[in-house]
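Progress narrative, Year 2. Work on DUF2197 domain-containing protein from Alkalicoccus saliphilus advanced from sequence curation to structure prediction during this period.
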Amino acid sequence: MRVKCVLCDKIEKLSPDLPLAKKLRNRPIHTYMCEECRERIAEKTEARLNTGHFRKHHTEEETDEYI
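Result:
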């Protein structure tokens, strides 16, 4: 299965037997991100968390716990 990264438009091949390939086939809303972009975003997110200026948005379930 050929997939395209949503950020860098890099085209890669996935084995059709992988769970990720099945998810992408059956649910078009799901998008593919290559490993390089995923790592880059993880590094930048970690750097923002370490600055202390990053605010994590809470889900509705987490918000209910604080009330």
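The chain has three helices and two strands. The mean pLDDT is 84.
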